[in-house]
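Case study.
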Amino acid sequence: MIGEATSSGGGGKDDSPAAVSGKKNKKPNYSRFTQQELPACKPILTPGWVITSFIVVGVVFIPIGLASLYASEHVVEIVERYDKDCIPPDYRNNSLHYIQTSETDKNCTMTINVPKHMKSPVFIYYELDNFYQNHRRLAHGMHKEFPFKSHLCCLWILKVEFSSVVDMIELTQFGARNLLFGKSPQKISLDKSENPEFVFIRMTTKVEKSARYVKSRSDKQLRSKASEGTTETCKPEAVTSNGQPIVPCGLVAWSLFNDTYKFSVKKEVLGVSKKNIAWKSDQEHKFGSDIYPKNFQNGSLIGGGKLNPSIPLSEQVDLIVWMRTAALPNFRKLYGKIEKDLQANTTITVTIENNYNTYSFGGKKKLVLSTTSWIGGKNSFLGRAYIAIGGLCLFLAVCFVFVYLLKPRPLGDPSYLSWNRNPSGQMN
Amino acid sequence: MTRGRIRARLRRSHLHPFSCLRPNANNEEPHPLSGPGFSRIVHCNRPDRHLKKPLKYCSNYISTTKYNIATFLPKALYEQFYRVANFYFLVAAGLSLTAVAPFSPLSMIAPLAFVVGISMLKEALEDWRRFAQDMKVNSRKASVHKGDGVFGYKPWQKIQVGDVVKVEKDQFFPADLLLLSASYDDGVSYVETMNLDGETNLKVKRSLEVTLPLEDDEAFKNFTGTIKCEDPNPSLYTFIGNFEYEQQVYPLDPSQILLRDSKLRNTAYVYGVVIFTGFDSKVMQNSTKSPSKRSKIEKKMDKIIYILLSLLLLISSISSIGFAVKIKLQMPDWWYMQPLNPDSLYDPDQPSKSGLAHLVTALILYGYLIPISLYVSIEIVKVFQARFINQDIQMYDEESGNTAQARTSNLNEELGQVDTILSDKTGTLTCNQMDFLKCSIAGTAYGIRSSEVEVAAEKQMAMDLEEQDTQITNGSRCRKSAHNSWEDSRGGPEIELESVITSKCENDQKPAIKGFSFEDNKLMDGNWLKEPNTEVILLFFRILAICQTAVPELNEETGMFTYEAESPDEAAFLVAAREFGFEFCKRTQSSVFIREKYTHPGQLIEREFKILNLLEFTSKRKRMSVIVQDEDGQILLLCKGADSIIFDRLSKNGRVYETTTAKHLNDYGEVGLRTLALAYKKLDESEYSAWNDEFVKAKTSISADREAMLELVADMMEKDLILIGATAVEDKLQKGVPQCIDKLAQAGLKIWVLTGDKMETAINIGFSCSLLRQGMKQICITVMNSDAVAQESKQAVKENISMQITNASQMVKLEKDPHAAFALIIDGKTLSYALEDDMKHQFLALAVVCASVICCRVSPKQKALVTRLVKEGTGKTTLAIGDGANDVGMIQEADIGVGISGVEGMQAVMASDFSISQFRFLERLLVVHGHWCYKRIAQMICYFFYKNIAFGLTLFYFEAFTAFSGQSVYNDWYMLLFNVILTSLPVISLGVFEQDVSSEVCLQFPALYQQGPKNLFFDWYRILGWMGNGLYTSLVIFILNIMIFYNQAFRAEGQTADMAAMGATMFSCIITAVNCQIALTMSHFTWIQHLFVWGSVTTWYLFLLLFGMLPPYYSEDAHKILVEALGPAPIYWCTILLVTVACNLPYLAHISFQRCFNPMDHHIIQEIKYYKKDVEDQHMWRRERSKARQETKIGFTARVDAKIRQLKGKLQRRSSTLILPNCMPSPCQ
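After joint prediction, the assembly is written out as follows.
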């Protein structure tokens, strides 16, 4: 087109030579691609194929299903819920207080009966329920002044300190008595004139970056000491009040699970191995061996467990396991393993240090002991699903055969063509 | 109405060479020009005066582009974001910059920019092409007066109002010009207005007498003048203005105006002064912006997108309500999220506010329901499809060197859904070339060559015979007898096949002479002298040579004469006469000179015939006569006309050959030839002069009814004629037209012909392309008495027409015979009433029950109106095809416009969506490409929605498990890749390469085409089915994964699945399942499909592997996930297998059951092909091919069927008396 336009500058007369020269070029070249004649296989679904494939699926699936069911059946799993039982009867009505105060003794003892022989290794899990580790929480990036509202539900001492997060706090008087308890949120935007005993706290804060619970962490920081200060994504648990970075920062680490279990059989302590409970790649690549916990749980609010500051992050297996966020609000995480066979009918005594607060949101806590097989833990669903699908396929195959026998259609029978089926569509 | 009047005037000017009817121009008064609308002033030869306002008019530069550099960006962006889906993504991308977005801004903006960028690039390219075309026109050179009598070339765009332009033969006029003088002394010039109105005959333009002396370049040295005229307007046939020259004022009328884009013919040069330039010119004023068309599928797709948007809104509101509830009731308890530190988005005190903010987040998060890459994928696919259309070697025309062109690619799939074709006649169905084929002289038929209709009919018969043979081999004596007697009768007189056999070699020897395909040694080379009625034959040839109004033109190279005639028929007659030895060589004002070759053997004699009177042809008179005096002084009236008219005017002794001629005429008509009867009458001197006095009296009368009087007088003369014979001219159809129409009819398409031609011509063409046939009931709707129209009130006329339509509908309704076919023929004047609002639906209702519809004498506007009526009245897809500028309206109005390229005039092609160089390529364009494109696009869109629903909903389900917090289970990278790479290439390969059946089969089984117009592949049932399938898939994927990876260990090493593992597994399941799904929907696998489908699955695992290799800084939670966590876990692979099978099982079961027990036509044909049954059982294959057609009442097949039925009817009657009755009726049905 463009070529022609330039060549036909001479006026209307010379259109024809341009057309002539265009003629030769215009003829499309033959190629199987442009003529849409590429060799192709054109599989068609013949009844034979259909029946065969249904049967094949059935025949393959049912054994797989049986095998995984079998494997699942051989997994021995013990699940013990302890959150209720580990509350001393005195505190049953005030479990929150029990777990929040540091004055109570958190230890509790349970006995577990091993129903079947458990081959080593026996994996120990803690299971949390109604815990949204997968929650995405945003802190809104804005610069605004807002009264500090508190809906405290936990027994952490509110220490108001000047920090870089909080640019300014107006603090007139402090009277903390009524502040700290109660399940429902309380507003304490109180006026001095109303009650001079109370404090009017006004915080002006700059919260810059969005953070999610899931993402309230800094993978970069976890990896090496060099990027210790990389805490932007960790808000609101990023730095201490005097601007020191928290290691490991973020809400995820901050809420580290901190119940502990000790096992013994007839007074004899069963060793809990923490070896290989974390992914190797996590230990090698995601958690640095030169970075140590720092300023952790030293802040105004104390979350979950504490970490030993003398062990590098790459060795903090419980943290590493915890930091792998669970997909569902009901999850298990590996606590350790007992590298010893447990005989049937053995009674195991478990000493639980019940530290972790799930009482405020009514989450259950469970201790799980389980062996594994090639499909992992006890999971009969996979096997059942396989058997169901395989069975369905066989059923479909049978149906197909029956219907086909009742109403056979020779393949390529022209009498099924629409113009033969519907005689009005043709002329003679 | 205006148009008719103007035409009459034009026609009169045709008679200019004979001077007898030339109106006396000198009496005319200048037009009283005043008031608004007549403000234009042109200073001739003083273009410098037009440089400043108010006389500065627009330049001659034209532009048909949609954009220019400045407007491109805003306009094109507007067009892009006018699409609802794109707008949604724009808003989403905008919001992604804020904190509420669940994804990073880049992952939202990049795909959008990509998609919009590609679409805009396409727009820009298309506009660039238009620009190049404009530049080509704008830079054409024209010879312009530069002052001092010197002319020089200037590009068109530089021409200004007031310029004097010299245009030479066969050049286009660069602007609207006032004709000043021409190479002919009398200022006459011939103009072809093909580009304006599609008429190929030449129009005569005549300059004012005062400007005649301006006949050479020098004369313009001091020429000045002023034109005052109307303002620019689109009316092609009117012009009002005055020309002030040398202190005199002369009125101007349309016959002095040369319009831009028409062409000077037959005249060496003309001088003209530019009146209207560029956009002011009439042709540009007439051009309408081509509407952007969208296919039905695309419109429906918009609806689906709306459905998905509402679904999106629904689940987003569910999600945000859920979020608000959770925040209100539970969030305060979740100490691990530090609810102490709340903000407006997570504020338990303001759950509604947080919920609203979350709504935005959710709307973005679930954006995966709406396939962002859908538009761009469709555009890519359509570009490929268009390339395939352009590259199709079987739509390449060797003669013109043109390929088919998909000029806009967004209507490809619409080609597969066409229901009605509205076709122009001249230049589309016919080549507008008449071939003298046969004649009947003195009751003897001459001419052995058969018409195209005969040839094609013979082929069809041969095929049917073969089939009959097949049936014989199958047995049944009864059938055999039936066949035998049918065969017997085949040789009989009922079917015109006697000459068919001789035509076998027709294709080899193309007619060497344009317009002459006659072949019969009895008349050629002077052999007619040996025939019995030599005298009559001589007279016959003389009538051919003399009774005409053409101008001879000597071709200096060949020494032969060519003829510029008003109608191509006339040219064909003159060529025939020349070939028979009566060469028309010269015309003067009063005489015609004929060179006769054989009348005196060995001598070439030039005879002069004095033309005494010429009684011109009008469509009402349907005849023309000349009164001539030969060299012996004998006065003859020579007359040619429509047979019915002539037969009525024969004298008693002139009817010698009437019966035989009538039979021949009938035969000719049946094979689609245009016939005219020839007659003559000898006149006495006294008889003539008496009549001539009357005639002159009538002619010079100045009363209003002059024309009526003239007609009456002419009528007195044209009676008591002596019939001598008839001619049969073939209106040369374009190659393959009848076959193509036949095939299209078999594919169930309705074909309407809309032509500017007169009714007889249109009917003849109807016959020759088998739209009409003998035995079809023709319903002619006309205004009864065209004279009376003026007198009668409009209301009465309308009632009359309404009555005709009602009667006809009644007749059609009462018809019992299922094979009866009706043809509706309507002329333009009647149509103008029938198209009025109160009557058009009645008219349409009648038209759709008729097998063929022919509208004649329709104006371009009416063509468009009819098209709109069909389009809107029936709601079906229409396709308009035409070649001339007069078809532009229709082409733009129809759902699909097809232009015929190759002949001159590019207007139709420029306005069209597809251009082909021959009508016959329409078959392949529709039946092959249309069918494929329709199915491809339909399947592709369905699949697109399926996969996005399947994917998008899993996000929603998962979100419910994260307390509606907007967390996605997948890594951002997975999601980005999902639409862009992992699932787009397979679906593009489906859209580009899928073929349900091969192109041969498409052509062999035209009935398959009906799957498109019936919309079997994109109806709501199917769309909802696919959406349901998507829903099912999403549920299966999510539930199975959740159940399998619930909370227990997923590996023997005891680890439990975290979100990354679960996300990767779910995503693997999705990728495998949707790709297996597309493999199931495909029926045609070339290596490309294999590569893309299986390649996509492989790419995913490769990606996961390689991405996992990257340092955790980049790969985040996907680090080593395949190698370390998932790969070694058997449960991962088990899950993928299980989910993939479970997802595809219902679809597989559905299609297998459908296919086995309720197969569609293409399934069976695929099976036949697969088992090579077509090779093994060729009879069956052929039989099915001949049956695979829609019930049609037009085309050869119908014609042959009708014939066979007729014969069978006879046979049945005959045999029922002879053969056992129980044997008879069934087998032949």
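Observations recorded in class. The first helix of chain A runs from residue 2 to 7. The CA atoms of residues 54 and 132 of chain A lie 41 Å apart. We will return to this complex in the next lecture.
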